[in-house]
Amino acid sequence: MKKILALILMLFCFFSIFGENDKEKKADASPRRILVQKIEAVDVDDALARSLEESLVLDIGNRENVSVVTSAELQNIVDTVDLKSQMGCDESIECLIEVQNKLDAEILIAGRVTKLGEDYIFSINTVNIATKSVGNRISIQGENLNELKERVKGAVDILLGYAVAEQLFQLKEGEELSLAVMPLSARGVDQSVADSLTSILSAELNQIKGVSVVSQDDIKAMLSQVSLASEMGCLDSLECVVEIGASLGLSKLVTGAVGKVTDSFVVSVQLIDVRKAEVDNRVLESFAGDERELQNAIKLAAYQLVGVDYKDMKGGVDFSFNIRQGMVQFGEIESPIENSKFIKGDLVPGRYFMRVRADSDRYFPLQTDIYVAPVSKNVKTFNILEKPAPWYRSWWFWTITGVVVVGAAGAVTAVILTQQTPSGTGSVVVD
Amino acid sequence: MFKALSLTVLFVAMFVSTPVFANEKGGLRKGDSMVDFGMRRADLEKGQLSGLVWLSDFVGKKEAPLKKQLLILSFFANWCPPCIEEMPFLQKMYTKYKDKGLMILGISFRAEGEVFKDAFEKSLKILKEKGVTYPVLFDRFTNRNQLLYLGPKAVLPCLVFIDSNGKIVEKIQGEDSHDFKKIEQIILKRLGG
């Protein structure tokens, strides 16, 4: 019996080793094996990451000719094999085949979910396991878990090549640019915010025709080794960044920082020519407004950085308010709020100053900077703050006043009543 | 026995059916394309690091080379006596064939935990003593590229020969790198001398 098993095992081994060509021939027929790594939760509830991971696995698993395995399942199998091995499983090749099958994944999907202002950012990328190269990368945003889940399907389509991401932007004819995005530095904001923006910047540059963004994994691995240097401020020095880029064999690098000073956010990015050790282009975007606007600010910075002309690709806004009436000044446009909404399209992408005025006795005016990104709609809900009522209009004033008035009236009445001689009273003298 | 056999089979199957592992075991090999990188060159006179030098400054350029060129990457460490022993020979080759298209780049390898400043100073002293004039490159942060060429075991000394098109045409590692006759034959063959 053992000899037969040994023979089967040898045959299995033989086909694993020498059956590569056959496997290639049958590639179309055999399912694509995809390994979904544990989705990393950065400054968000871990349950949210697990829920997204589940959606991702379900969506991929429901597709034809695809088999999906999670890193947790893989760990489970390895543990089981380990356990079975102790129980004599190794006399059966089933568990070995099982592990081999699971390990034979072609594509690995990795991702992280984090928060930027009120929005969640879910960045996902594929890794070709054989070549260890990063394939597609995509970043989706949503205000809540449901919104993110709705967008997972479209993202998976692009990630696995079922759909092609529309490349709306392109470099000048014939131009090509291969670059790497270094992690943005955080100044006055959380590092998780800077990391989210790095992901968005990377994904946005990758969507420009003619631009290819090099894997961030190499950079991360490199930076983990130069952590001491980064602690010493190495990443802020051009000489140092150039040295890191050269060591990675990169000709162009994008570096930058995101910061906050009082109520203003500043995003600065530079395109560095590593070979010339000089800055090719520098872009600065600053605004006073909501943290969520950083998403659009970084997108515009990305296009400007590589010289993409986006001015003709109009965008729009769709704002809701907690007030029914008021006036909105949006850049040069002045328009009333209708049914608590302010909707405008055909806007040139860029930064706009917005002022909202409602009943000045009841509401504070709202002032903020808003970004309009190309071919997209900035959807937001604003809460116009109500002014506190003046003291003479407050309930307590009128309550006290009422109590005082009633009290006073009562007191006066009592005094009057006690001082009046009751009628029919007096002294009677009887002789 | 059977347990050992099946485990061996599993590992063999895993490694052989995944070419990337097999390839990485010994680093880049003969026939592979070079992986380009840049490192800072040591200024022996001033005793400091100077500008960046890239492999593609010499070979693997997009435009066709005017004449045959050969780039030798000589990986060394200041604590590796055989590496130091071969330096005068490499210098002799450089002087003799540089006009015919030979370029040698010394590439320093740092041991884990070795402080860069100390390694750099020790290396400078050795390079001066051995009269090295070919460019010697240093990476302040990692051994990433060194390990890419040498493999995880980082067997030193190691000579990697790269032709004008950026192809690795020969790789000599360990004891073989002291076969000076063979090395000169490779140079002559590649430069058409």
Descriptive keywords:
heterodimer, A: 431 residues, alpha/beta, Rossmann fold, Immunoglobulin-like, 6-stranded mixed sheet, 12 helices, B: 193 residues, Glutaredoxin, 7-stranded mixed sheet, 7 helices, 22% strand, globular, disordered N terminus
Helix-strand layout with pairing:
The complex is a heterodimer of chains A (431) and B (193).
Chain A: H1 2-18, H2 20-25, E1 32-36, E2 40-42, H3 46-61, E3 66-70, H4 71-86, H5 94-103, E4 107-116, E5 119-128, E6 133-142, H6 145-159, E7 169-170, E8 177-181, E9 185-187, H7 191-206, E10 208-209, E11 211-213, H8 216-225, H9 227-231, H10 238-247, E12 252-261, E13 264-273, E14 278-288, H11 293-305, E15 315-321, E16 327-330, E17 333-336, E18 341-347, E19 350-357, E20 366-372, E21 377-382, H12 395-419
Helix pairs in contact in A: 3-6, 4-5, 7-11
Chain B: H1 2-16, H2 19-25, E1 38-43, E2 48-54, E3 70-76, H3 81-85, H4 87-97, E4 102-108, H5 116-129, E5 136-138, H6 144-150, E6 158-163, E7 168-173, H7 180-191
Parallel strand pairs in B: 3-4, 4-5
Antiparallel strand pairs in B: 1-2, 1-5, 3-6, 6-7
